[in-house]
Amino acid sequence: MRLTAKILKKPITSALIAIVCGFLVAAVVLAAAGYNPWQAFGALFSGMFARPKYVSNVLIKAAPIILTGLSVAFAYKTSLFNIGAEGQYIVSAIVVTLLGIRLNLPAPLLIPVLLAAGMLAGGIWGGLVGLLKAKYGIHEVITSIMLNWIAFYLSNYIVNLPAFHQPDSTGTYPIRESGYIMLLPNWKRSPQGMAALSRIPWLREVMMRTDVNFGILIAVFMAVLVGFVLYRTAKGFELRAVGFNRDAAQFAGIDVGRSLLGSMLISGALSGLAGCVAIMGAAPHNISTLAAFENNGFNGLSVAFIAGGSPVGCIFAGLLFGGFLYGGQTVQADVGAPSEIINIMMGTIVFFMALSKLISTLADRLAKGSALHAE
Amino acid sequence: MQISEKYAVQMRGIVKTFGSLRALDHVDLDVRKGTIHALLGENGAGKSTLMNILYGLYQADGGEIYRNGKRVRIKGPNDAIRLGIGMVHQHFMLVENFTVAENVILGREVTNSLGVLDMKRAREDVRRIVEKYGFQVDLDAKIEDISVGMQQRVEILKALYRGVDVLILDEPTAVLTPQETNDLIGIMRNLAAGGKTIILITHKLKEIKQSSDACTIIRRGKLIDTVNPQTVDEETLAAKMVGHPVRLVVEKTPAQPKDAVFEIDRLSVRDKRGLPAVKDLSLKIHRGEIFGIAGVDGNGQNELVEAITCLTRAESGTIKINGEEIQNTTPQNVIRHKISTIPSDRQRHGLVLDFSCEQNTILEKYRSSPFSRRGVLQNGKIAAYAEKLIRDYDVRPSTCALQPARGLSGGNQQKLIIAREISNEPDLLIAVQPTRGLDVGAIEYVHKMLVHERDAGKAVLLISLELDEVLSVSDTVAVLYGGSILGTFRQDQADEKTIGLLMAGGKQHAVNG
Fold first, then answer.
1. For B349, which residue in chain A has the nearest alpha carbon?
2. CATH architecture of A51-334
């Protein structure tokens, strides 16, 4: 019993329980709507794993969500709720697209410039929220939501500027190829590359049929870096102190306002990086008119939540979400069940994560029960 | 003891467990009708838990309760009130902009046959109780305009108005001046003489001797003894409460003050609502001196400390340490100028409870060498430093370094803060209510550390709501009332009566000032 209680209290356990519950609820909904849940889940998983290119696409899809997840998780450590990841992602995408179209630079220059510009844009968008919070005490949720909409309409405005709009399309021109961060984009199309790849069919499929890029590597690297900053550096110590107890931090001489601003700057930059990876890493390499939010930022909220705020946890939670989003398309194609079922599943998982306090309370009860029993 | 009608309340074999903690372990209590019965114990001993069970706020895991010799079950406060048991908590539950009378009848409004509030009759009912027990409250005053002592009486009135026979008072004197305490004891006597039974939860020995007919001592959830406080001296009571002999007097040699190191000149500070809280306050503290500020809560203590530590703006005046002005700078600057503060609210201002004890020891120095280098925390150095503090200051359990500070007892949390602040080697150590909520052993320790710092040539500023503490620890005693210092005394000239009157604002007595 003690062991059970201990296992139940681990954060990973609540995440796994939440995921199982997500599947259960989705199964009920599917069955109620007249679809076979097993078939649907089968389609979901085969849509994620059946072919090498599916796996590759899951990774491509996951990279930006891992980054926005990190962004939200980072701010959360300073007790800030960065619901503005979406807007920070969008402004970064705008800036990267504009510069990517206009700047005529070779790849070794253009790529770092675009990455820096995107992170800066996201950082400013997030920093604005931090500044308003630190200076005037305006709640970050309010300002973030407003900035999300400002970013949204700004994006649509810029897409339709004649200078950037690609005729007969809904988007802008793509950025220059020297700004792409795909894996060996030229080599794989060269005769030697084709020849080399033809010997390894799965690799060939992945390389030729998907936009394999550095995004996932960047995301994993950032997760490790964010973990290091939070837990091993003086800055991270300061941010977490502010997050846990603002009053005590201030009393101990920490400049709380500066911490809030710094936290939102970094958080915004991480969301900005997600925007960079999305634009530079995968087709169509541009921004197009938005009818609604694409949810790359909002999904980051769920990812951070499922990860329990752990930076490394964000990698796995992001992969899960990426998988669901991509595999979900197959559910619709193969089984005919609407892909919204995936949203229901994700919503359920988040819901049950929110209930994870309950699980740990139950675990306490269990431990207490067994302790009394032992007496 | 037998179950009998002579007892207003009898509790038998009460057991209560919280998680793995046995808060109450087969505790018995017998309270005779018409007596004042004290319940003595340290913080966390279980006395409040026992009374919360009697009042129905908690359910016991085992044991029985008898009221007037009859077995009763109390499932909630409503059951308790129906049985004539009432409780006055430390925190009052009053409607600020209602009058005294309105607050008393709230929830028990008297109405006429049409269902309209009959305030006249209600007020008459309340007035009768007030006169019977000598309450001396203005029934038509609004709560926001009356003192804390008066508000407490309103809470007692509320209970009496509901027909309560057994009144539980939870640490009622914590918020009172010495005079108000005496008045309260007078009221309690009147109530007992009028047939009411009073259970008094407290850890103050003097009050028990002054007021109670019987005293039950609880230690770590176990019943230790029930004694007649009139025949037992304070040392014995304290020893029973703590479990070993204690010294109630602070041991120290006469102060040898040197040069003035800290000076406040004509300081004025406004509170959060923008009202003047500290008015034109001046003081001077020397090396080797403990400067104590006595006063009732809410007379500018918080604002004074916040102004010194630069958490709030000083409106005018100067604050100088070693001749340098520090007012209206930053908390960090204050720490850099060698002022260290033991805050009154250790959980809110003193510690990051979710950080480990180790992390809490470097809360003010994480940025500097050797704890961080080029921005990266040096875990080895931090661990060694924390280990040393935990050992030197006897923070228990000694293995707590990597555990969250939340898990420490109040006394050990305070030790951790004291360890951190003293190891800053400050020129001025500010201690705000440093023993609040601590048990006797921990109080003794804190006082010893303050005296030790004084003897090491530091200036110490002690701000406390416990008059006894200020009087016994300080070398110089000042009284804060309404944001001003009404009088300053040398310890040997400070008598409780004069100070007590000043604490209530009695200016005419400030002859020594």
1. A248
2. Orthogonal Bundle (1.10)
